[in-house]
């Protein structure tokens, strides 16, 4: 009896062990199957990113994505904004434009587009024409490219062209029509364009961007204005990415030609990034006057607190009128730290050899050099 009982117990334990092992095997297989299914689904979704994408605002961390439902409704043909629609193009590349493009060879990446405003019907047409000198990827080929743009201060709507195949000179030739902007409203807009490159599995990485302030452009009443713009690189020498804004700084500048001096007023800064998760921001502004790369003067504002700082502090710089085009104003926003070296939050440059709004600000000041009028402008920090 004892042998039978002992044998029965061993059989029962063996059966139970087999059932337990089989259960574990089933659980492991089920988990592996689900992981594989999720991975395949993810790869499938990534393969369709050229039709359905989540778009990040250009140089802004807000509004990270576009809802999928809106994308499916539009199918890439109509913008999510009801005041805009994509229309057939009214521009075709001609020989004269190709000649002008050839003059830009061996230069940084550039973007060609046109602006036209119908003053009678209050309609704005933006035609994205082409890009030139698109940089190659690390594997030696040009990426598929796309142009995205915004009409600031409205950063909630992002408009985009179709993705073009790998080439150094992609031609987009797509026109967008905006309805309802009055002439006064038009002068308050800033067009921000970004060129994006794609690989097989990414959402697109920004190659460069440029800003166009409409109040500084001349709109012809009967024909579009064709513009070439050099694209600012994605990152500067300090390695900081421009994919997201580091804040904005509001500056007023005046050149007094008779007295030969620059009058700079640091008004305020908004939406500054935090350099520390635990300490409150203590920003201040450092202004550096340079001529031909040589530092002439350095001034700084008082320290304040918060990511939305107000200074209203002015500086006077004596300059030589004959060599005014050699001067540059480097504006740096730093965070004061009692324990370590002050960290740079962001910076921008104003001068004749700069890019983007820095050059636009300088050019507008020089246009008003004899009247001595102040020119105020908002700049994005990088």
Question: How do the strands and helices of this protein lay out in sequence?
Answer:
Elements: H1 2-47, H2 68-74, E1 84-87, H3 95-102, E2 110-118, E3 123-132, E4 145-152, E5 154-160, E6 171-179, H4 183-186, E7 190-197, E8 205-213, E9 225-230, E10 232-233, E11 248-256, E12 261-270, E13 283-291, E14 294-300, E15 309-318, E16 327-335, E17 343-350, H5 357-367, E18 375-380
Antiparallel strand pairs: 1-6, 2-3, 2-9, 3-6, 4-5, 4-7, 7-8, 8-10, 11-12, 11-18, 12-15, 13-14, 13-16, 16-17
GO cellular component, one term: plasma membrane
GO molecular function: calcium ion binding; calcium-dependent phospholipid binding; clathrin binding; phosphatidylserine binding; SNARE binding
Domain C2: 107-229, 245-366
Number of strands: 18
The biggest sheet, with number of strands, parallel, antiparallel or mixed sense and barrel status, is: 5 strands, antiparallel
Fold-level CATH name of the largest domain: Immunoglobulin-like
Mean pLDDT: 77
Q: What's the CATH superfamily of the largest domain, by name?
A: C2 domain
> SSE order in H/E notation?
HHEHEEEEEHEEEEEEEEEEEHE
- The second-level CATH architecture of the largest domain is Sandwich
N- and C-termini, Cα separation: 87 Å
Protein name: Synaptotagmin-C
Domain C2: 107-229, 245-366
GO molecular function: calcium ion binding; calcium-dependent phospholipid binding; clathrin binding; phosphatidylserine binding; SNARE binding
Organism: Stylophora pistillata (Smooth cauliflower coral)
